[in-house]
Design a protein that fits this description.
Length: about 290
């Protein structure tokens, strides 16, 4: 009887503990790692904003060592592709060289997907900069200008390569939005969005940066130059001329010897309006274009 009595006394306590555990089971099992940062909580503070901005620049590294030159320079008379006669490797580049690419060409896929990767990152940052009080207004304007430039730059490449393309100007947060945004828009609408972004960038970007760590970030001169190229691509030379004339007043000048442009010791020189940045030896940032 003694053992039964003890059991009867402790049973309610056991049931209470089990009920509590059952009621809280979801919180016990669905615990996010301490290192996890959600999208809603990420874009807070200068460090997170700068990290996100660096992510907007990052796709340029792969774009300009891979698909961009293949879809541009490779198709000119300056460059040709010589395939390996032993195994006939490099079909994708060979197709680009001979204007006979097919729908599964990896170069075309890389160009398209890498560009939209950069656009998606720019959209997420720009949307989260709206009304963001966690950073100074001056930093907000500077990051906004760089992100708008980057988005316009990616779209400028896309519209010239593909013509009508999906025009996505906000972060995609649902499956329904992803499908609705996938529809191709007329090239003229894409160009209009590019011009809007670049005009905003021109008004908020500095002529130069004072910090060494900002070397390679886009400037007012870069924004004005690309905007002028956008106008010229549409045969609007009247709007391009004043932009290019203003760029000449921003401190740029030609190097004495044309060959000096290609000397690795002269990176980011006075003739450089915008350069994609690479760093030897660091995973993810070196150039593999030899």
């Amino acid at each position: 009887m003694k053992s039964i009595k003890q059991y009867l006394v402790t049973l309610p306590v056991f049931l209470l503990v089990m009920a509590g555990a059952t009621g809280c089971s979801e919180s016990f099992l669905n615990v996010k790692p301490k290192s996890f940062v959600s999208g809603s909580g990420y874009f807070q503070g200068s460090n997170h904003i700068t990290e996100s901005l660096n992510g907007v620049y990052a796709p340029l590294d792969g774009l300009y060592t891979g698909s961009m030159w293949a879809m541009a320079e490779m198709r000119s008379d300056n460059t040709s592709y010589q395939y390996n006669t032993g195994d006939r490797s490099g079909f994708a580049l060979e197709q680009m060289d001979e204007f006979r690419e097919i729908d599964d060409n990896s170069v075309v896929y890389s160009m398209y997907s890498t560009s939209y990767n950069g656009i998606a990152r720019a959209n997420a940052l720009l949307d989260n900069l709206q009304g963001n009080t966690s950073i100074p207004d001056s930093l907000n304007a500077l990051v906004t200008g760089q992100s708008e430039f980057r988005r316009a730059f990616y779209y400028f490449n896309l519209v010239r390569m593909f013509g009508d393309v999906p025009l996505v100007l906000h972060e995609v947060t649902s499956t329904a939005a992803a499908f609705s945004d996938a529809a191709r828009k007329p090239a003229k609408d894409v160009y209009a969005a590019i011009v809007t972004d670049l005009k905003d960038a021109v008004s908020s970007l500095p002529a130069k940066y004072s910090q060494a760590g900002d070397l390679g970030r886009v400037t007012k001169g870069a924004a004005e130059t690309i905007l002028a190229k956008v106008y010229m691509a549409q045969h609007d030379y009247e709007d391009a001329i004043p932009l290019l004339e203003d760029v000449r007043t921003l401190g740029y000048s030609l190097l004495p010897d044309y060959a000096d442009i290609f000397n690795p010791a002269n990176k980011n020189n006075q003739e450089s309006i915008f350069e994609v940045q690479y760093k030897e030896g660091t995973p993810g940032t070196p150039s593999n274009f030899i």
